[in-house]
User: Fold tRNA N6-adenosine threonylcarbamoyltransferase from Pedobacter frigidisoli.
Amino acid sequence: MSVILAIESSCDDTSVAICNNGKITANVIANQTIHENYGGVIPELASRVHQQNIVPTVEQALMNAKVTKQDISAVAFTQGPGLLGSLLVGVSFAKSFALALNIPLISINHMHAHILAHFIDDPKPTFPFLCLTVSGGHTQIVLVRDYFDMEIVGETLDDAAGEAFDKTAKILQLPYPGGPLIDKHAKLGNPKAYKFAEPQIADLNFSFSGFKTSILYFIRKQEKENANFIAENLDDICASVQHSIVQILLTKLKKAAKQYNIKEVAIAGGVSANSGLRAGLQETANELGWNVFIPAFQYCTDNAGMIAIAGYQKFLKKDFVGQEVSPMARMEF
Ligand code: KG4
Ligand code: ZN
Assistant:
């Protein structure tokens, strides 16, 4: 029997989840809207808001899961990677909580957790599988041999896929974070309306910085002829940008699947909420006979449910850490 309380505070969302015997019974996410005013996450503000949100979010999660503090068997937390000031709030809270209740502490790598989100609901992938993890800070193709036996076989050399979405949105004067807005407009546009330069990288790695620049130059050029170009063509621009990013991602994923001879393929991370990527992956799967795994929306973007399920796997192995543990902005995979 186990009840794991999990805390995620690596960026700008404070999230607390409960995993009761391997089932997620609460996943509360307190979003921080304050960053919208600045066009990006302000680390100092993020840690302050985590500080305000952490206690009410824990209380809400306990209430949703219908458990009390005394029922908790262990506390799992995101140790990194992420913003140091944000991580500090979650790690300090987790340590104090575990100390007060005299229960074990479990440290989780945020990037492992995005992948392990696939073990929350059925159907679950079988090992080995490939996972394309696409978020605001990372773009990785990971060969997953077991719960904590993972190898990065391809990754971005510069910007992450989420950044490509968010920076394009900024060029299009959409508010932060722009990824979900590009997705929304893309649904109404023509994905073949415009074509952008795709990066030419031979191996399984990615590059998005040149792609982003090509969009910027394209928009500037169009605006010279028509000052209202963005407003008049927003849906088509978003659909075309999204289509290009999805193609870049799927091309490398197909290459990896072929190279490793694996047909069990998953996506994870904030960008896996993207409807174009979800549809494109399903299409590729039908074409190549893949088994694909796409997390429920609430487990794509940052959430503590994924930390709780990863924590549960470590709890079963009694893989605990001591009170000397500290957050790590950069963390070895
Ligand atoms: O995993 P996540 O919540 O946080 C990080 O660990 O980075 O990912 C956030 C990223 C942001 O760049 C956001 O714009 C992007 O995921 N995102 C999307 C969508 N929903 C979130 N990008 C494209 N389409 C979406 N529907
Ligand atoms: Zn994340």
